[in-house]
Amino acid sequence: MKKRIVLAVSLTLFLSLVAGCNTLRGLGKDIEKGGEAIQKATQ
Asked: b/e map of 12-40 (b: 16 or more CB within 10 Å)?
């Protein structure tokens, strides 16, 4: 029972992350933009 709950919660979190970025490619672009923002902030 606990295993199913953990699986359901994990799957929900993963899908919400992927859906927020539309695709895994979009996730990569979001991470890249975040890195660029950090670089600009440190300059």
From this structure: eeeeeeeeeeeeeeeeeeeeeeeeeeeee
Q: pLDDT at position 22, please?
A: 64
Percent of the chain with pLDDT strictly greater than 90: 0
Q: Coil, helix or strand for 22?
A: coil
The reported pTM is 0.43
Give the integer Cα–Cα distance in Å for 2 and 7: 9
> End-to-end alpha-carbon separation of the chain, Å?
51
